[in-house]
Amino acid sequence: MAVLAVIWLFxxxxxLYNSFREYSYTQTNGYLSFGGWTxxxxxxxxxxxxxxxxxxxxxxxxxxxxxxxxFLSSLVAFVLARFSYRFNLTLLGVFLAANLxxxxxLLIPVFRMFKEIPLPAFMSxxxxxxxxxxALILVNTAFQLGFCTFVLSNYMKTLPHEIYESAExxxxxxxxxxxxxxxxxxxxxxxxxxxxxxxWIYNEFFWATVLISRGDKYPVTSxxxxxxxxxxxxxxxxxxxxxxxxxxVLVVFFALQKQFVSGLTLGSTKG
Length: 271
Fold this sequence. Notes:
single chain; 0% strand
């Protein structure tokens, strides 16, 4: 496990190491040399890549998409786990089927559909879903909904049925059972999914290139392209930009690390 951890972390540590070095020094002495330390790479990467704008764009896309995905998937998962009816498994299969389709297969229909959906002027400058953050929020929510529903429904099925019987005897409605009883108990699973969803949606760039044509609305992953030169790329500068891009995800992971681990290990000791 230690060897695998080193192999997994090596690219990140190598990028971090070179992000503090001058490109001219590494070109002269090689990337295996030691020296040429500088902080200018981070300043230049931030300014040239316009990271402030693109980070804001990514936050405006990621936070609502993650919140909407977790809320909607928890509603569906509660129904699937709490109630038994004829189309229970069929409904779960429909949600999972969306994860089996490659996004490229839906490129043209999604683009044409969003082009025809009107939006008020205060929500979109083009009057349609295209070139708006709403398009990326909805498309990411749609593609992540199936996976989150599957995980949460299995998590909710592990909750003791007796607590719901007691709640019904006390007169708790279905909504109250969901909001005040189930949601607090599935907090570890929500934290684990939130960590994964922030990583996936924050790093997603395919749909941004399809649904967004204005450079000032691109997410932060596009900022790395601004660091590439016409004839050559300063790899140390790109490394500094990559570290800047990765920082928000690392902050979210370490903030939710305890809940993330407990969510992943649920049921591992059940016989």
